[in-house]
Amino acid sequence: MPDSTRAPWRSPREIPAGPDVLAAGPPPVPASAPPFAMRVARPGGADLETLHTWMNRPHVERFFERAWTRERWAEEIAGQVSGTFSRPVLVSEDGRDAAYIELYRAARDVVGEAYRSEPHDVGLHIAIGEEQDTGRRLGARIFAAVTQAVFAADPRCRTVLIEPDAANAPARRAAERAGLRFGGEVALPHKKAALFFADRPEGDHGRE
């Protein structure tokens, strides 16, 4: 279980933010994004075992680079849940856990300095648990479904983005298949990233 004596969790990617950005609060976690269902991951039990297993698989570790111990993953999940920067989410399809995503407020992340970010923008990291699932375009389907679900859950969110490693060809193909707009490559402190954006459809102002 997480060590309560440690300093409060903070993502190494998080940057100082002004009150208008902080006021946006944590990113939304839609209950579902048909045909998928989503839930916030728990820092123990089956969720922890699933994430620990997935993150130590070569196809995930190559770009996620988090082949951590169970203890460190428990700290990570609990820290995200207790904070307001990001949310750790398990995505299931037909009752089977299929992917891990992190939803985060892009304006509070290092990527927010690489484009004209707004307080309610949401970023998305993704890891597909089973390598064979990448062959059924699971990533593209998750990008498309989750993007629309986030827009519905946060009426003030105008942009959803992903920023995979520029060398991550499968993620780039998935973004293109999902209809995301390519925004160029940028140098972030930890990688060279390819930016892809989904914009709220014109005329869709959400429900204020």
Strand content: 25-35%
Order of helices and strands: HEEHHHEEEHEHEE
Helix tally?
6
**Mind telling me the CATH class?**
Alpha Beta
Overall outline: globular
Low-confidence stretches are none
From the 3D structure, determine the CATH topology. Aminopeptidase
Give the N-to-C terminal Cα separation. Answer: 39 Å
Question: What is the number of beta strands?
Answer: 8
Tell me, rounded to a whole number, the average pLDDT: 92
Strand order of the largest sheet: 1-2-3-4-5-6-8-7
Rg, alpha carbons = 16 Å
The amount of helix comes to: 25-40%
CATH superfamily: Gcn5-related N-acetyltransferase (GNAT)
The class by helix and strand makeup works out as: alpha+beta
**Main sheet properties:** 8 strands, mixed
Number of domains: 1
3D architecture notes:
With 208 residues, the protein is α+β, with helices and mostly antiparallel strands. The chain has one domain (31-199): Gcn5-related N-acetyltransferase (GNAT) (Aminopeptidase, 3-Layer(aba) Sandwich). It has 6 helices and 8 strands. The chain has helices at residues 19-22, 45-55, 58-64, 70-82, 138-153, 169-177, and strands at residues 32-33, 36-40, 86-93, 96-105, 122-128, 159-162, 181-188, 191-199. Strands 1-2-3-4-5-6-8-7 form an 8-stranded mixed sheet, with helices on both faces.
